[in-house]
Structures are given as C-alpha cells and as structure tokens.
Specification:
Blueprint lengths: L12 H8 L6 H9 L8 H11 L3 H4 L4 H5 L6 H23 L7 H8 L10 E7 L5 E9 L9 H10 L4 E7 L9 H16 L3 E8 L4 E3 L7
Parallel strand pairs: 3-4
Antiparallel strand pairs: 1-2, 1-3, 4-5
C-alpha cells in the first residue's frame, strides 16, 4: 500500500469523509483518520491495514491492549493511547444505551453493557449489579478477580454490598477469558447457593450472566435460576 500523498486527493480518508460523509469510509480509512500519520515507507493507511489484519478485524481490535498495539510497526505510545480511548468510548456508549433505560428488561441488555469491557480481560472477574424494586441500576461493583479460568467468591461481600446499598435485587456477571460462556459445574453450584442464601435474607438474585468472547450465557434464560 503506497504513501497517502500518492493517493488521489479525493480518495484520501479526510478528503473522502468531507466529500462523501464519514459513513462511506472503510474500517481501514477510519483507523487511518485516528492514527493520523505514518512514517517513511509506511503510510498511515498501511499501518491501519496492518492493525486490522493482525487483529482479524474490528472485533479482534477490541481484544488489543497497550502492549499489543505498540508492537505493531508505526503505532507509538501516543497513538496506542488514542486507540485505547476509542475502545473505551465504545464501551461507555454501549453501557449508556442500556443504563439510560428506565429499567433492565433482559439478559441481552446486560451483555451489551459489558461485552466490550470483557473482550480484552485475561482473567476472570465477578461483578455485581444492584437494582431497585423497578429494576433500575443503583450501582455496579467488581467483587472478585481471579486467574484465567478460576475466581473465588465471598458470599458475605455480595450480601453486604446489596444490603448497604438498600438494593432488593441483584445480578451477577462474570467473564470466561477462554471465550466459552458455558457454565462450569462450579458456576452452577455457587449460583444455586447464592440464590438460596439471598432468598433467606429477603433478597433476589435475578440472573447470573457469563460473558464469553462473542456470546453469553444467562442462567435465567436457561431455567437454571
């Protein structure tokens, strides 16, 4: 791929966006606008192409962290931070689209809120989502972190968090960095234990959602809760 100065003016990303609209740019051209500049014998379009090629497209880009980005020729520290800022904004947009609703209605809402957050996680993490009586979000909090395929949970942390925030319902969310969202036997056992203990305190576990790479598993949707 040649230098951007050698491209016909109207085909350069910035000029093309001004003439035809930003929605007419390819993924490579959009990334080129963010990266802004290339180097000798390495155009900005070439850098953008290499980024998407190495990450296998947009979904793969979501898995890239600072170290992976700066390993790509032409992406320096400043550019890597800019790209991570784009990824963070994507996550926040997804989150706000659901959080701004009057109330949580289904498991897909939750998946949309947190899928980008967990794309690049290489360790398991448990998050609790606290809800009021109309299923509005009161608070979210990470209550445990573990290894790539294991995390321990303290039941007391869950119930203390729910009670001190005057919540009556809660949803558990955790990720499987391996990509497969199917629950393990331990996931099923601990979910049932939490559900029983919550009921004894007058609280309700609405769902437990496991997030994989491109999929999720809802205990409620699968009649396991």
């Amino acid at each position: 791929m040649g230098q951007i100065k050698d491209i016909v003016c109207c085909e350069r990303p910035r000029e093309k966006a001004l003439k035809l609209g930003i929605n007419n740019l390819s993924d490579i051209e959009l990334f080129a606008l963010i990266i802004q500049s290339g180097g000798k014998n390495n155009s900005v379009l070439n850098i953008a192409y290499n980024l998407l090629d190495k990450s296998n497209g947009l979904s793969g880009f979501l898995e890239y962290d600072y170290e992976k980005l700066t390993a790509i020729k032409g992406i320096n520290k400043v550019t890597a931070i800019k790209l991570l800022a784009i990824k963070e904004l994507m996550q926040r947009f997804e989150y706000l689209k659901v959080a701004s609703k009057a109330h949580i209605t289904n498991s897909k809402d939750i998946y949309k809120m947190f899928r980008i957050k967990y794309f690049a996680k290489n360790n398991e993490e448990i998050l609790i989502l606290l809800l009021n009586h109309t299923n509005q979000i009161i608070k979210e909090e990470v209550i445990a972190s573990g290894s790539i395929n294991e995390v321990s949970i303290d039941f007391r942390l869950i119930f203390c968090d729910v009670l001190k925030n005057n919540a009556h319902k809660f949803i558990l969310i955790h990720n499987h960095p391996t990509g497969d969202s199917v629950p393990s036997n331990e996931d099923i056992y601990y979910t049932n234990e939490i559900k029983k203990k919550a009921k004894g305190l007058g609280l309700k576990l609405l769902d437990h959602i496991i997030i994989g790479k491109d999929n999720y598993f809802s205990f409620k949707d699968n009649a396991l809760i």
